[in-house]
Amino acid sequence: MAISVHAVTPDFVAEVGDVALNKPLAPEDLAAIRAAFTKYAILIFPDQEFDDEGQLDFARNFGPLETTVFKARKDHKLRLHENMADVGNLDSENRVLAADNRQRLYNLGNRLWHTDSSFKRLPAYCSMLHARSIPPIGGQTEYADMRAAYDALPEATKRRIAGLVAEHSIMTSRAKLGFKDFDESERVAFAPVPQVLARKLPDSGRMSLYIASHAGAIRGMVGEEAGKLLDELTAHATQRQFVYSHRWRVKDLVIWDNRCTMHRGMEFDDQRYKRDMRRATVSDVAPTCEQMGLAVAAE
Fold it and tell me: Less Cβ crowding at N or C end of the chain, within 10 Å?
């Protein structure tokens, strides 16, 4: 039986059924998933049984895997495989993280609007998040369609942002929450990188905004003006008409296109309920400036 695709909206978010992702996929099924992903940018696969290796194997169908940012910190004990991002609230012994735990405070940044790994020179293509356990209330994830947000911009704004380059760093987003606990190796690893504000997607040909809470300075623009523009673009892109809110079910796998979406995790009582969410992230093919044909000097 061929996979089934049920759209949530005409071109943003779809649920996919009649497929088990923990086993090798037929070429025609993988091609159908890739085509749906290009169209909808977010795909929801309910009731998927995975161990970590099975999830990583599925992710490899889309490209090379990223390594978790927590590996940059030498004193951090990983709970999961180094190619798996741990976005739950559990320590290496599967206990709820204490309120003052560094990993918990760091992960609170996931509640800001962002796109995964825009703080890396080679950013992310797609992320695949699997729900192993979820809180009974709260903890949903919101996603914003940056293609539709770009389409809705005034033409004058599209002209204004064409060719602009922002500096992204995970230290920028964490500073917004007052988090500054980075060691020297992390400060080197997370130095700001250039990313375009607007990009063309090579597979669909659509234009998309490319912004995140990781974005700070904009090259060639004074700080106050840059901050105002980024705030205005974020407020525009996260209007209700561009946003889908996903209420998780155990064993949901959600994959999203980081090139053209932003997302944020919503609050839940993380001192009371366990949340075990595991994310595999696939790298993009090239830096955004290179993809847009912009020669950008290192700063």
Answer: N
Instruction: Note whether 142 and 243 are within 8 A (CB).
Output: yes
Element (H, E) at 279: strand 276-283
- Non-local (6+) Cβ contacts of 218 within 8 A are 164, 165, 166, 167, 197, 225, 226, 229, 230
Q: How far apart are CA 44 and CA 280, in angstroms?
A: 15
Domain extent at residue 221 = 4-287
Using only C-alpha atoms, what is the Rg of the chain?
A: 19
Could you report the per-residue pLDDT of 141-166, keeping only the tens digit for each? 999 999 999 999 999 999 999 999 99
Q: Are 124 and 281 in contact (CB under 8 A)?
A: yes
Question: Is the pLDDT reported for residue 271 higher than 80?
Answer: yes
Do residues 46 and 252 lie in contact, with contact meaning Cβ atoms separated by under 8 Å? yes
Closest by Cα among 208, 122, 217, 126 to 168? 217
Residues 6+ apart with CB under 8 A from 60: 282
Domain of residue 213, CATH code: 3.60.130.10
Grouping H, G, I as helix, E, B as strand and the rest as coil, residue 65 is: strand
Q: Is residue 180 part of a domain?
A: yes
Give every CB contact of residue 29 below 8 A, 6+ residues apart in sequence.
2, 3, 19
Outline where the chain has alpha helix (H): 27-40, 52-59, 102-107, 146-151, 155-161, 170-175, 184-189, 223-237, 288-291
Domains in the chain, number: 1
